[in-house]
Design brief:
Length: 154
């Protein structure tokens, strides 16, 4: 039994010596390679009196830093966010495409938490998620007092 445990340990130890991680430069040299800008959209704190319809229009740029064409297979968004447009033709090496999304931002105080998922043939991962976050707040100079509703149960 002791010999079997030693043998198994040696097999695992020797296999880890021979495994290599491929660098990003090697992946870029022979494959499509996706880079997303911005990788995360942070809207920050938005006063409710500054909310506009344009606030929910987000454009994401997709770069192909690889040597082969990048194909966006599918672009999806969550929870009330619409993908209005995305590059459907292959993005050539050193080229770029776009993903445009839209969502409605209400004027009531709330947190914004959305995401867009981009599926592609990229060597550095076939699925990438871009998160969109922010918060609509009551402006500090608001004259109205927000009253909470309470109900007494008997």
């Amino acid at each position: 039994m002791k010999h079997i445990i030693i043998f198994i340990s040696m097999v695992f130890a020797s296999s880890s010596v021979f495994t290599q991680e491929i660098s990003n430069e090697e992946l870029k040299a022979n494959n499509p390679f996706i880079r997303i800008e911005p990788s995360e959209v942070i809207l920050g704190s938005i006063p409710s009196n500054k909310v506009t319809e344009e606030l929910g229009n987000i454009e994401i740029t997709i770069h192909n830093d690889g040597a082969k064409p990048l194909i966006l297979n599918q672009v999806t968004a969550c929870c009330g966010t619409r993908v209005t447009e995305w590059t459907r033709e292959p993005i050539p090496p050193n080229g770029k495409g776009t993903v445009k999304v839209n969502f409605r931002v209400g004027t009531h105080p709330h947190r914004i938490s959305r995401s867009v998922t981009i599926a592609s043939n990229a060597a550095n991962g076939n699925s990438h998620r871009v998160s969109i976050s922010g918060e609509v707040i009551i402006p500090s100079d608001a004259k109205e007092i927000q009253l909470g509703h309470s109900r007494e149960f008997k």
